[in-house]
Amino acid sequence: MADRKPSTTPKIRGPGYGRPKLAPPKPLPSPRPVDDATVDEIFSRFAAREPDPQGELEHADPFTLLVAVVLSAQATDKSVNIATRALFKAASTPTAMAALGVEQVEHYIRTIGLFRTKARNVVELSRRLVEEHGGAVPPSRAVLESLPGVGRKTASVVMNSAFGEATIAVDTHVFRVSHRIPIVTGRTPDEVQVGLERRIPPRFLRHAHHWLILHGRYVCKARTPDCPRCLIADLCRFPAKTPPPPAS
């Protein structure tokens, strides 16, 4: 076999040829969780500012709360409230909701993401509440989690807001705030929920869920946390705090 001659055609190099490759950006260092005294101070401040925080989903009773929370998955509270104002006028009890049927429920909630699946779940859970629980929402986490469309977070919201159980529902806001401060870190919402319920002093557990959600929604926002007006900025160990605006 004849030796292959070296090619005389110059290779075309891209514009970045010869430049050193940039290493991917390193993640921010993960600070260690704050100590118990700091956790106590954090929630003392939340409690002093707003002793009785309320969720923002509109509801009149445990059933309408349950439906609203089921609808709120991957949707904003504002969009859910707009849809449920008309829906609850048409059907505000499990019996009425089951009788309304999937197509009509879809009509009322069509502006919400995943509305077809959610409509089926709402009608089916309503039917089961009527047939298995006399048309009432039972104050039982196990029963709630057995209903279609109801997972641990939804059950926790209902148990906390409707029945006064000292539990924490971990949504995206609670998960983010807990990791930024950090109070508890974990790979999953369930891990964070267990950790928060162990770490937060019992006298604050009843309202901790709402304090953390509202703080994450309006202050410790995902893209740009509003650290300059944060009530607990001096206690938080988040290494990338937003600086105050320059003085004019």
Description:
With 248 residues, this protein is mainly alpha-helical. Among the domains are: 36-45 and 167-229, Endonuclease Iii, domain 2; 62-161, Hypothetical protein, domain 2 (Endonuclease III, domain 1, Orthogonal Bundle). It contains ten helices and no strands. Helix 1 crosses helix 10, helix 3 (77-90) packs across helix 4 and helix 4 (94-109) packs antiparallel against helix 5 (115-133).
Quickly count the helices.
Answer: 10
The overall pLDDT, averaged over residues, is 90
Q: In total, how many beta strands?
A: 0
Helical amount: 40-55%
Distance between the termini: 79 Å
Our estimate of the beta-strand percent is under 5%
Question: Structural class from helices and strands?
Answer: mainly alpha
CATH homologous superfamily descriptor of the domain at 62-161: Hypothetical protein, domain 2
Order of helices and strands: HHHHHHHHHH
Low-confidence stretches: 1-22
CATH topology of the domain at 62-161: Endonuclease III, domain 1
The Rg value, from CA coordinates, equals 25 Å
SSE order and pairing:
Layout: H1 36-49, H2 62-71, H3 77-90, H4 94-109, H5 115-133, H6 141-146, H7 152-161, H8 172-180, H9 189-199, H10 202-218
Helix pairs in contact: 1-10, 2-7, 3-4, 4-5, 8-10
In short:
The chain is mainly α.
Task: Describe this protein with a few key phrases.
10 helices; Endonuclease III, domain 1; 248 residues; Endonuclease Iii, domain 2; mainly alpha; disordered N terminus
